[in-house]
TrEMBL record:
This is Saccharopine dehydrogenase NADP-binding domain-containing protein. It comes from Variovorax dokdonensis. Residues 7-108 form the Saccharopine dehydrogenase NADP binding domain. SUPFAM superfamilies: NAD(P)-binding Rossmann-fold domains. InterPro entries: NAD(P)-bd_dom_sf, Sacchrp_dh_NADP-bd.
Length: 394
């Protein structure tokens, strides 16, 4: 019989952290879970109140003292980091986890942090530890979709020489948490991160393109009774999403060469204009006065969607793959329920399965079951998700 995974959830008092804690408590109450979750955060009073309400153990500590963090992680199989901003917590928590042979999983979405964390992969592998970043929506979903698509194409002998473009696109979310707004603000740069093949087409190199230069139309499906139709393609703009980097890693793990990888977010005309204008003043954002003013505006936002808003907070993820001659090979669209509740289920599933995954730096698809086994299930990480366009080779 498989022993339960001891999981420490750090950042449990934040918006996403609370949803993860609630989902963990629900699964543990129903007795079908293979985990034992302990809550952690800096704020002792808020943490204790949450833990008592959910009937879970807790421990309060900060991340300033490396020895204190390492001591707190001893005895745990996995630590989940839900404490943003991840630029302030990710490396500190991951390094301490590696030092005590504890696996690390987070729900971060910041490209700069993802790049730095990737550098810890070699050290983690040498210490028999696995690191999985971006284990929430949407990066985990796009990674699962790409991994399954590559498997299907490989079985049909469609990728012996490699593929052309890989594109990931997400539609606009109706409701954002304060933490998501901060992440999106940090995504605004003068340039967008993309991946392009080298001259020999043997490696995908990280490159940058000007904001607003790369735009495409995507079929995100219709609505209501016609949601599987596409009355009007919608324009999306290339954005700084970690989906690009996780896709690059999954292509490398699968041994598939590609010409390019790009990630997009659907935007209205006015929002695209605002996005481009914001990129021109991205350098000025580093000035303390402007940064504090912007931070004050974000802090004034609601902490996150209400229960009622989350019930109406559906989302869609598109995966496109072309061959080397720009002919479509995959054009799939997955509809999800609320991204925040989905994130809670996904990150817990990754945390439960990470001990059996390969060591070192991994993406969610290297840990979780194939996506086609999860979509349509009554329960599980992707409960409530459905294909608007199936993940089948064209």
């Amino acid at each position: 019989m498989t022993s339960k995974r001891r999981i420490l959830l750090y950042g449990a008092t934040g918006y996403s952290g609370r949803l993860i804690a609630q989902e963990a408590a629900r699964q543990m109450r129903h007795g079908a879970s293979s985990m034992e979750v302990v809550l952690a955060a800096r704020d002792r009073l808020r943490l204790r109140a949450l833990a008592e309400r959910l009937g879970l153990e807790w421990r309060a500590f900060g991340l300033d003292e490396e020895r204190e963090v390492a001591d707190a992680l001893r005895g745990f199989d996995v630590v989940i980091n839900a404490a943003g901003p991840f630029s302030a917590t990710g490396e500190r928590l991951a390094k301490s986890a590696i030092s005590v042979h504890c696996h690390y999983v987070d729900i971060g979405g910041e490209v700069d942090v993802y790049k730095r964390m990737d550098d810890l992969g070699y050290v983690a592998n040498s210490r028999d530890v696995t690191i999985v970043c971006g284990a929430g929506h949407t990066s985990a979903l796009s990674d699962l979709m790409l991994d399954a698509a590559l498997e299907k194409l490989d079985k049909r002998a469609k990728v012996p020489q490699g593929i052309g473009a890989v594109r990931i696109a997400v539609d606009r979310m109706k409701y954002l948490s304060r933490g998501s707004a901060r992440t999106m603000l940090r995504m605004v740069r003068e340039q967008v991160t993309v991946a392009r093949a080298n001259a020999e087409k043997t490696k995908l190199l990280i490159q940058h393109a000007p904001i607003g230069k790369i735009e495409r139309s995507f079929n995100f499906g219709g609505s209501g009774a016609h949601e599987k139709q596409a009355p009007m393609p919608r324009i999306a703009t290339a954005a700084n999403m970690i989906d690009t980097l996780s896709a690059r890693n999954t292509l490398r793990r699968r041994g598939v060469n590609a010409d390019s990888v790009e990630s997009y977010i659907e935007m209205s005309g006015s929002l695209r204009m605002t996005y481009q204008v914001a990129s021109t003043v991205a350098a000025a954002y580093q000035l303390p006065m402007l940064r504090e003013l912007t931070q004050w505006q974000v802090d004034a936002l609601p902490e996150g969607p209400t229960d009622e808003e989350r019930r109406d907070n559906q989302h869609r993820v598109v995966l496109q793959i072309e061959n080397a001659w720009r002919k479509p090979m995959i054009d799939a669209c997955l509809k999800t329920g609320d991204p925040y509740e989905l994130t809670a289920r996904l990150v817990l599933a990754v945390a439960c399965g990470v001990n059996d995954a390969p060591r070192g730096w991994q993406t969610p698809a290297a840990v979780l079951s194939p996506i086609h086994a999860m979509v349509g299930a009554a329960d599980g990480p992707l409960a409530g998700c459905e294909w608007l366009r199936p993940l089948q080779p064209l």
